[in-house]
Inverse folding.
């Protein structure tokens, strides 16, 4: 049965001087008992469709065309009251962040009971029984005790289960889930998706699953609609779209997904709509100093480094408590190697990166670079030399660039600081770098907010390359980016390693990405290195159970088209 | 998402003035009647104060132009003895009230601007240092601020004024008075700048661009003033505008209490103090006009500050 039928929906957001078409002419249908995936990159309009279904489009946006039919009943013309009735009773929503969608000052039980009473007209006792039943159904087993708890007493995954229970209170026909697992760890994500999957079949509801994650789409949905810049480019069964994409955009999107099973030489042509601006590696190579690394000696050695953060300070030393974020970690990185560090959030991998870079001081152990100890803060000369040799690319391209500085000044800062060049040469060098990272010298006067996430990460790369370093630390460099932009940035990093012989420390929680990028990988848990292996042998024969669990949690991406991939 | 690799190739970038006029803040300004009216009044008052010697019909500080017989002339009426008429009347010594207001506003605005600048420089620097270094430095600076906030700012100002009066020789007292006023008001108002800047700095310090700068090897000083300062300035601008109104009122209050601007260099507050002596004897204009001017000035600057706060707040968009 067709529950929801969207025909030629258009949503406009008028602004000062133009109308932004967030969605134009989008059509899709949702059947009972199926999960319909809505996939696209940021700004594709997928969340706007979700909001339109719920009647929750934020002003000044409005539906400028098309219609939404719910069980053969037109909803577009409904007034606000009727819409609220329909929204509460028949259509529910699951939001991305379970922390903000629950009221922190009410117990979970109160919130469930209130919703049940409003929608189903139960008395308090019946509602309590139903709330209990729902919590058990979504996998919260000690429901009696949990009903009296507040949202902050639940973990992220448990909270999202409560949100799902809340969405089920009104016995809806359609559930709109907007990135329901994006804020969760991989292990929890898999459980939540399975729960949604089971509930869909069991209760014969129609689910619209909005996500940017191709892994979620491939493993969870029955049918999928691909969106690009407000338009539906392709729709069909998940098997068809993932296995035999027809539209060029879908093809480019699928080819940009990092695969867990195979290692690619590099990501294939991922441009669509002329977005993959060229990265001029050849020109960069021409001016790059020849490396004189001894290939048999490690470029960077980390021996027994330890970092403790105070949890509670006390004058009496024995009463202070400390969190050991990094505990006795040692490894060597050879010249020209990409060394990966993986682990879940809180495993200490980013702390390692910050200790090596000198942003954190060590509580023990030492870091050696090119034969010299660089972790001694009193040796100013060694520190200054080391600063020129290493650079870092940060996770969040929105906060790693000073919003009030022009691009030219951002890139010139390291050059000016190290005084490696005179004034007019700096300007020339900045232009050169901007050309090389594919942005063009003309953007030098712009501010960071005028760029997209991928372009900002290119600016970060230009800044990192400005002093011609020998060692690059990449701390989750692509986890904030869309998948096609991620592929472009990863290709650039691969180029830097292959053509310039740059040595890299690559921090990531994303195992498929690590497989594409790294030569050797260290797996970290609770501040310790559990195992360290060549990437290929790690993926083939993990030595520890923890690594095996991590590998099992990777999205399987079964049936994803492998058209045009350069497999190694 | 569009192709922005060659953005400036086809169309020339507009001039700076045009860019400013087209910017979001100017667009909001053009669409806010309150802001426009407040701005017009502020500009009118400030300009007439700055150009007082050109605008004012008399120079109230030139004894040669004064005629005691003109004293207590009501507004727009010829004087009974001399036949001279004055737009807003005259005070007890025959000075033209309109002219004294213009000259008085000069003093008020000068003290206001200078005091706010002092408070701003002090507060922003201390706030940046406290937020950036944290720990014991932060604790000391902010505790001093907390202690100062427990005293009414007028009391702090009077204290400073009193001490200054005690240490300066009597012959310099009148000259010093204005500067003491500035220091007294400026020192009583750095706390709010420091608090806001410290809060904003705490947020900025955690951002990755600060770490990137540290990684390059930049010193704390160049990170604070080269990177963080420019990112915390927009709330400072808002507070500065609102404190300007408060500083003008504080100056008027002090002068009204007789511990502010001397009668030889009267500010709006001094004029109000002189005027209130004659309120019940029928010469209402000596008090009313300076008071109305003070009200108008403070109100329009305040409204401008309020609008600026809303316009710069991304959450209210």
């Amino acid at each position: 049965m067709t529950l929801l039928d969207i025909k030629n929906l258009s949503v406009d957001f008028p602004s000062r001087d133009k109308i932004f078409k967030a969605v134009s002419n989008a059509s899709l249908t949702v059947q009972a008992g199926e999960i319909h995936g809505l996939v696209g990159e940021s700004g594709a309009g997928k969340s706007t469709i979700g909001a339109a279904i719920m009647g929750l489009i934020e002003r000044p946006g409005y539906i400028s065309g098309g219609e939404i039919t719910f069980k053969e009943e037109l909803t577009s013309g409904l007034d606000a009251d009727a819409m609220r009735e329909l929204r509460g009773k028949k259509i529910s929503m699951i939001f991305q962040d379970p922390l903000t969608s629950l009221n922190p000052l009410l117990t979970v039980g109160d919130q469930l009971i209130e919703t049940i009473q409003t929608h189903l007209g139960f008395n308090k006792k019946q509602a309590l029984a139903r709330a209990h039943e729902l919590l058990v159904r979504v996998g919260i087993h000690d429901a009696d005790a949990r009903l009296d708890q507040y949202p902050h007493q639940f973990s992220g995954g448990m909270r999202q289960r409560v949100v799902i229970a809340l969405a089920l209170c009104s016995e809806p026909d359609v559930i709109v889930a907007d990135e329901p697992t994006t804020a969760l760890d991989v292990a929890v994500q898999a459980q939540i998706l399975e729960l949604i999957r089971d509930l869909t079949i069991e209760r014969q509801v129609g689910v619209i699953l909005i996500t940017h994650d191709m892994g979620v789409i491939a493993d969870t949905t029955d049918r999928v609609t691909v969106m690009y810049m407000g338009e539906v480019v392709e729709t069909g069964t998940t098997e068809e779209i993932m296995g035999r994409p027809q539209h060029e955009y879908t093809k480019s999107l699928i080819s940009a997904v990092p695969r867990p099973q195979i290692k690619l030489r590099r990501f294939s042509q991922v441009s669509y709509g002329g977005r993959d601006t060229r990265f001029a590696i050849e020109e960069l190579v021409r001016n790059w100093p020849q490396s004189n690394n001894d290939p048999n000696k490690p470029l960077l050695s980390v021996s027994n480094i330890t970092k403790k953060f105070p949890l509670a300070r006390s004058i009496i030393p024995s009463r202070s408590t400390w969190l050991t974020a990094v505990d006795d970690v040692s490894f060597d990185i050879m010249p020209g190697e990409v060394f990966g560090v993986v682990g879940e959030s809180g495993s200490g991998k980013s702390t390692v990166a910050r200790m090596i870079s000198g942003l954190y001081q060590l509580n023990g152990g030492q870091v050696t670079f090119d034969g010299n100890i660089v972790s001694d803060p009193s040796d100013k000369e060694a520190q200054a030399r080391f600063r020129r040799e290493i650079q870092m690319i940060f996770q969040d391209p929105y906060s790693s660039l000073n919003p009030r500085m022009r691009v030219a000044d951002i890139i010139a800062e390291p050059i000016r600081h190290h005084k490696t060049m005179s004034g007019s040469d700096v300007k020339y060098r900045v232009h050169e770098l901007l050309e090389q990272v594919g942005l063009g010298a003309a953007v030098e006067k712009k501010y960071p907010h005028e760029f997209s996430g991928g372009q900002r990460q290119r600016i970060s790369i230009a800044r990192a390359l400005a002093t011609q370093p020998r060692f690059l630390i990449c701390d989750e460099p692509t986890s904030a980016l869309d998948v096609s932009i991620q592929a472009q940035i990863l290709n650039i990093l691969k180029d830097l390693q292959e053509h310039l012989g740059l040595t890299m420390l690559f921090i990531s929680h994303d195992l498929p990405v690590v497989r594409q990028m790294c030569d050797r990988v260290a797996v970290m848990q609770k501040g310790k290195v559990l195992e360290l292996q060549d990437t290929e042998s790690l993926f083939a024969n993990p030595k520890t159970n923890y690594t095996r669990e991590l590998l099992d949690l990777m999205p399987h991406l079964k049936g994803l088209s492998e058209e045009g991939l350069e497999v190694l | 998402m569009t192709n922005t690799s060659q953005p400036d190739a086809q169309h020339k970038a507009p001039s700076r003035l045009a860019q400013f006029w087209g910017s979001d803040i100017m667009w909001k300004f053009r669409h806010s009647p309150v802001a426009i009216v407040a701005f017009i009044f502020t500009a009118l008052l400030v300009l007439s104060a700055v150009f007082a010697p050109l605008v004012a019909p008399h120079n109230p500080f030139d004894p040669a132009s004064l005629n005691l017989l003109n004293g207590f002339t009501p507004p727009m009426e010829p004087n009974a003895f001399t036949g001279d008429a004055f737009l807003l009347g005259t005070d007890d010594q025959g000075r033209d009230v309109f002219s004294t207001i213009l000259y008085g506003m000069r003093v008020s605005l000068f003290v206001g601007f200078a005091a706010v600048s002092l408070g701003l420089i002090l507060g922003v620097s201390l706030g940046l240092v406290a937020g950036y270094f944290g720990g014991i430095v932060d604790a000391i600076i902010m505790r001093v601020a907390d202690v100062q906030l427990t005293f009414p700012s007028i009391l702090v100002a009077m204290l400073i004024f009193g001490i200054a009066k005690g240490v300066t020789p009597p012959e310099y007292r009148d000259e010093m008075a204005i500067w003491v006023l500035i220091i007294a008001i400026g020192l009583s108002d750095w706390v709010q700048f420091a608090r806001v800047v410290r809060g904003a700095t705490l947020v900025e310090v955690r951002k990755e661009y600060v770490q990137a700068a540290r990684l390059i090897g930049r010193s704390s000083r160049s990170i604070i003033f080269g990177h963080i300062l420019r990112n915390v300035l927009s709330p400072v601008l808002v507070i500065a505008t609102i404190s300007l109104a408060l500083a003008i009122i504080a100056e008027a209050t002090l002068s009204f209490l007789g511990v502010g601007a001397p009668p030889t260099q009267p500010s709006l507050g001094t004029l109000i103090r002189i005027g209130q002596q004659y309120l019940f004897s029928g010469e209402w204009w000596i008090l009313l006009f300076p008071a109305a001017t003070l009200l108008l000035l403070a109100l329009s600057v305040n409204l401008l500050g309020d609008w600026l706060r809303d316009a710069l707040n991304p959450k209210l968009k």
